[in-house]
Specification:
The complex is a heterodimer of chains A (270) and B (235). By secondary structure, chain A is of the alpha/beta class. In chain A, 31% of the residues lie in helices and 23% in strands. Chain A is globular. Chain B is an alpha/beta fold and 235 residues long. Helix content of chain B is 26%, strand content 30%. Chain B is built from seven helices and eleven strands. In chain B, strands 4-5-6-9-7-8 form a six-stranded mixed sheet, covered by helices on one side. Chain B has a five-stranded mixed sheet with strand order 3-2-1-10-11. The two termini of chain B are 34 Å apart. Classes of the chains: A alpha/beta (270), B alpha/beta (235). Strand 6 of chain A pairs antiparallel with strand 7 of chain B. Chain B: This is Metallophosphatase.
Chain lengths: 270, 235
Amino acid sequence: MKIAVLSCIHGNYEALNAVLLDLEQHKAEKIYCLGDLVGYGPYPNAVVEMIRSLDIPTCQGCWDEDIVEGLNACECSYPSLLAEQRGKLAHEWTHERIYPEVRDYLAQLPLSLREGDLCFTHGSPQNQHEYLLPEMNAFAALERVLSTGANTLFCGHTHVPYVRTLEAGSIRLRVDYKGESGEETVFTTPLRRIVNVGSVGEPRHGRPNATYVLYDTETDHVQLREVEYDYQKTCAAIIEQGLPPIFAWRLARGLEFAERADDPSHICER
Amino acid sequence: MWAILSGIEGNLTAYEAVLRDLKRQSVEIEALYILGDILGLQGPVEALLERLQSPQGGERTPQICAGFWEDQYLQMQGWGGGQPEAALSQYGSNVLMELEKRVPRSCLDWLRSLPFGFLELDCLLVHGSSVSVSDELSPQTPPWQLLDYLVRVEANFLFCGRLGQCFSVQLQNSQISSQVTTLDQPLIEQKATSSPRQIIGVGSVGRVSGLARYTLFYPTTGQIRCRTVEYAPNP
C-alpha cells in the first residue's frame, strides 16, 4: 500500500490542494497528517475543513495545541523576541478567525498515531514542540524511535524533509545492584528509521515548493516529494489578510528567516 | 569527595545518622547534595527544614534540589499548573491530607526556590531524570533511555534518587551508524560513539526506618561508594 504523509500545512490552502493532486496522481491509497494545520497562513478554517472532509487521520501539532490551549503552552520556544512578537501576532490573528468547531476538532486530535510498525507524530513522541533535526545525536534519535515500539517514526515540525536510518546500534552495559556486580551485557538494536516529511505550507528547505512523503509499505521505499504550486497566491493572501509580511517573504524563499532556536531539543515543561 | 543524599522524607533521625557517618569519613566532604524528597510521609518536616538551613560546626551547607514530594506538594498548593495526580495514583486518596499535616505552609516560598537539579563538572544531579522529577530510573530502565538522559545534558554521570535504592549502571562503548538522505544533499553517513557513562541511584536516607543509604563520589577518580548507616529509629 502506498501511504502519503503530510505535515505543517499552516493554513496554506493552495499548497494543500497541490499536494493532494500530486499524491492522487501517484496513487496514494491512504493519507496521514502530522498536524500544524493552522498558524502563519491565511486559510486555517479551509485547511481544517479539507482535512476533515477527506477523513485524514491527523495528529495534533504544536500550533494546533497553542490555538486550543493558548500560547502559554510553549512561549519559551521562540528563538528571539522578534520571533515571539511575530508568532504572537499570527497566533492572535488565527485565534480571532478560527471557527469554534475547528477549535473543537483541533482539541481532540491525538498526539500520535500507529499503523503496524509505523508511528506518526508531529515533533517527537514525547512532545509536539521537540525538533528531531537530522544532526541530532544519533543515540537520542534512536531512543525517540525505540520509545514508540515502532520501526519507522514519521515526524514533521522542522519543515525540512529527510530520511535517517539508524543501525548497528549497540551498548555494553554493566549493572551493580544490591551489592552484587553483574556481568557485562551487550544490547543491540535492528535498523530503525526517522522520516521527516517536511512541510506542505511553510517549507524551509530553500525553495517555496510544498514537500511531503510517499511511503510504500510493501517495498519499504520512502520518496521525498517536492511539489511546485502558485505560492504567490498564498503570499498575496498573507499580506491582504493583515498577517505579518515576513511570513510571505519567507514562504517565497522557503526559508525560516535568519533565526534558529538555540536549543532545538528543548522541551517545554509547561 | 561529594556526599549525595536523597529521600530524607521528613526523617530527621536518619539525616542526623548520615551526618554523623560523614563526620567519620577520613576524606573531607567538599560538597553535600540532597536530591529532593526532603518532604515525605516519614515524619514532620519543620525541624528537618531548620536543621537543613542551619548546618552545625564543620558541616557543609547542603545543596538541595526538588524531588517528587516537593513537586507534588507544590502542585497541591496550586503551583506547577497541574494536579498532584502521581501522588494520588501511587499512594491513594489520603496522601495529600497526610502530606499537608507534615509540611508547614511557611516553607512554600523556600520549596518554590529549589532548583530542578545541578550540573557540576560532568555530573548531573537530579531527583528523577533529566526530563522529570517523577521519572524512576532503575537497573531495569532500557539502556537507550538511560543514555538519552545523559546525552541530553552532555553529562558522563547522572545521579538520581527517585528509586530510593543504591545502584549503578555503566554504559560502555556505545556505538551506532546513521545515514541521512535529504532532498538536495548526497547521502550523509555518520558513525557515532559514546564514551563510558554511568547512572547512579544514590539510595534513600529516610524511607526505610533504621537504615539510611546514601552515596559518596570522588569526582577526580569517578569512584562511587554506597554507604549504609544503621541507626535507632524514633519509637
